[in-house]
Amino acid sequence: MKNYEISFIIRPDLEKDAVEKIAKDLESILVKNGANVLSSKEIGQKELAYTIKNQKTGYYHIINVEANDEAINEFNRLVLINPVVLRHIVVNL
Question: The whole model's pTM is what?
């Protein structure tokens, strides 16, 4: 298992409770596929460097995990089809 840092941006037009639920759902995808969540941190709403899907701001969230390739691949697949996630990146530490 490798250590990863996963960052993602959630649409700003959602309520605070919905943003927290989406972040928990994304964490649960990793856990269900055998990952170990080391830390999870909500950065808050920030202005984007450029417009993404007609949005100028977004809720940033960072998750540090210890995961296998299956968990990361499943996370990537589900995040790409999730309409409320503007962008995400997975970095192998």
Answer: 0.91
